[in-house]
Design brief:
With 568 residues, this protein is α/β, with parallel strands linked by helices. It contains 16 helices and 20 strands. It has helices at residues 18-34, 59-75, 169-175, 193-208, 278-297, 310-323, 340-353, 363-377, 383-405, 415-420, 441-455, 462-466, 486-498, 504-518, 523-536, 538-542, and strands at residues 4-10, 39-41, 83-91, 99-107, 110-116, 141-144, 147-153, 180-185, 212-216, 218-221, 224-227, 231-234, 238-242, 249-255, 260-262, 302-305, 328-332, 356-359, 408-411, 433-434. The strands form four sheets. Strands 5-4-3-2-1-14-15 form a seven-stranded mixed beta sheet, covered by helices on one side. Helix 2 (59-75) links the parallel strand 2 and strand 3 (83-91). Helix 1 (18-34) packs parallel to helix 2 (59-75), helix 6 runs parallel beside helix 7 and helix 8 packs across helix 9 (383-405). The longest helix is centred in the C-terminal third of the chain and has 23 residues, at 383-405. The protein is elongated and about 85 Å long. The protein starts with a strand and ends in a 26-residue tail after the last helix. The model has no long low-confidence stretch (mean pLDDT 95).
């Protein structure tokens, strides 16, 4: 085949913003045309953004989709000969769901190829069969630049081992003998996902002796974050190109029938087998997730309750990086149980980060609640009810600040605490987004150390990292009064919540620790207790704000458990 110039458009579409997404794609196509590309390739459902959810049930939304597609088709006339590979919902006739998740190739003002996604994932965070019918078991190829190009959509390329579906679109496409495969994707990011993609598509490329380009979107969309990391593979060499992660990018590659080269014809630099270190990955994913969530929801500034503890400290540090310290406000809300050290640590933290700190004591508010409660019901508040009251007063003050000044309130719970319900509904669970809710407590400590090491100074004071965790809702209270030590708790939680979804190395280490723990004198009873706590607190998680997903199984749409159920 003659050489193809392929423009990989790794864009950041906004869900539902048809006009904005059309403008993004049109600009990218113009760049591709100027660069002499044969084809510009966009991600899956690039017209609507992924995932549009039940917007697909609304007639007005589908009318806007139709209009947007017409605009793209018309715009393709301005770049003669350029193929636009776009993702969009398309209407279908007949029984079943009325839409397909489609790949369309536009050229010279016409749709010259249409392919409907065959494998519709309905697991973890995916629910595509809710709205789409699977496409027919056929291959779609198109002659471009003298060669045959075949097309796949995301999940269609993930079943080449035949483990999950009866149909194998990759094998069917290979039977049609294309010379190059183009796969458009909306593959959300989590730890280990990059390596999983590389291994799977490199194996399929070898098996079918087909080179492939894989184009993915980037951006934060509610709890999901997409990392881009578009790539190219060949049967002989595996992954030979990878676009940047967590940034928009448009890259031109040349395919000459035997090898991929850079747009200027130069050899491609080698692709590192290992991705980002774990903590660097968490940091990049959270920063992008918050930045896009705030932008898309219309927030310029955020507010965080600063307890002087490690969770709020990490949340503040990440928010300052994502939005700039001038757009982050901290509020410390000391009670009669708060230590002077906690307040002082909040002051030092905010000075280190360069953010504004307000102080709003809650002692008088809590005292008035206590007095009014006793007067109304004849008994004073004490124990857990009094502890939770303090958290709820803090949550009310923070929400009042959010309402008055228009800041997005960030919740500060970590995965360990959220798992076992060590949090107060309508208190410290208040907020619009959780940044660290998919980090176990041990990872919170590790990420704080990483931020300090990367900065070369104490962003997060060592006094905060070193102090024993405490909610400070009762005299001399410590988390260890109610919970197992966090290294022990996190081991149990990883097995019970994530299990086989853990990466291979982490799974082996965790399962070894878990087996040792279970064999101990109180191990079985402790594991049973943690299991009960997880089940008993599902109702809290159901009412919590969305949590940025970092790991293979996060709370939210990726873990759907009943509330009113027996778990024994």
């Amino acid at each position: 085949m003659s050489a193809l110039r392929l423009s990989l458009a790794q864009i950041n579409p906004t869900v539902g913003d048809i006009a904005g997404n059309v403008a993004l794609m049109t600009a990218a196509a113009q760049n591709a045309a100027v660069d002499g590309a044969s084809m510009v390739i966009f991600p899956e459902l690039s017209l609507t953004g992924y995932w549009p959810g039940d917007l697909l049930d609304e007639a007005d939304f589908l009318a806007r989709v139709d209009a947007g597609l017409e605009q793209l088709v018309a715009a393709s006339r301005a770049a003669p000969g350029l193929c636009w590979v776009v993702g969009a919902p398309t209407r279908r006739e007949g029984p079943g769901k009325r839409l397909h998740n489609s790949l369309l190739v536009l050229r010279d003002g016409a749709v010259v190829l249409s392919y409907a996604k065959q494998l519709l994932p309905t697991y973890n965070v995916f629910d595509e069969s809710r709205h789409f019918a699977p496409g027919p078991d056929v291959a779609r190829v198109l002659r471009v630049g003298g060669g045959q190009v075949g097309f796949l959509i995301c999940e269609d390329g993930w079943n080449d081992d035949g483990a999950d579906y009866a149909v194998n679109p990759f094998r069917r496409l290979a039977d049609a003998a294309p010379e190059l495969v183009v796969s458009i994707n909306a593959s959300p990011s989590n730890i280990g996902k990059r390596e999983q993609r590389h291994a799977l598509f490199a194996a399929a490329s070898r098996r079918h002796k087909l080179p492939l380009v894989y184009v993915n979107q980037i951006g934060g969309h509610d709890q999901l974050v997409y990392d881009g990391a578009s790539f190219a593979v060949t049967p002989e060499a595996g992954v030979v190109f990878e676009a940047q992660r967590f940034v928009e990018a448009q890259v031109t590659l040349q395919w000459d029938g035997a090898a991929f080269r850079a747009g200027d014809g130069a050899p491609l630099p080698p692709v590192a087998a290992a991705g980002l270190p774990v903590m660097a990955f968490y940091r990049r994913q959270i920063v992008l997730g918050l930045r896009d969530y705030a932008r898309r929801c219309g927030f310029r500034q955020v507010v965080v309750g600063s307890s002087g503890g490690i969770d709020s400290a990490l949340t503040l540090a990440l928010a300052a990086e994502a939005l700039g310290p001038e757009n982050v406000v901290a509020v410390t809300l000391p009670s009669r149980f708060s230590s002077s050290g906690s307040v002082d640590d909040s002051v030092t933290l905010c000075q280190n980060l360069g953010i504004k700190l307000y102080t709003h004591p809650i002692k008088a508010l809590v005292g008035q609640y206590e007095a009014d409660f006793a007067a109304a019901f004849g008994e004073p508040l004490h124990g857990l009810a009094l502890e939770n009251l303090q958290a709820r007063v803090r949550g009310t003050v923070l929400m009042a600040y959010s309402n008055r000044y228009g800041h997005l309130l960030l919740t500060t719970g970590n995965k360990s605490e959220i798992s076992v319900g060590y949090c107060t509904l309508y208190g410290d669970t208040n907020g619009g987004l959780g940044l660290i809710g998919d980090l176990y407590k041990t990872e919170v400590f590790e990420l704080c150390r990483h931020l300090n090491a990367a900065a070369g100074r104490e962003l997060i004071p060592l006094a905060i990292i070193a102090k024993e965790p405490s909610a400070e809702l009762a005299p001399d209270q410590r988390d260890s009064d109610s919970l197992p030590p966090y290294p022990v708790l996190d081991t149990i939680l990883k097995v019970l919540i994530e299990g086989e979804r853990l990466g291979a190395a982490e799974r082996a280490a965790v399962q070894a620790d878990y087996a040792t723990l279970a064999a101990g004198p109180d191990g079985t009873a402790l594991i049973a207790r943690v299991r009960r706590l997880i089940a008993r607190n599902e109702y809290k998680r159901r009412q919590a704000p969305p949590i940025l997903r970092l790991r293979g199984r996060a709370f939210g749409s990726g873990r759907q458990m009943p509330i009113a159920a027996k778990y024994d």
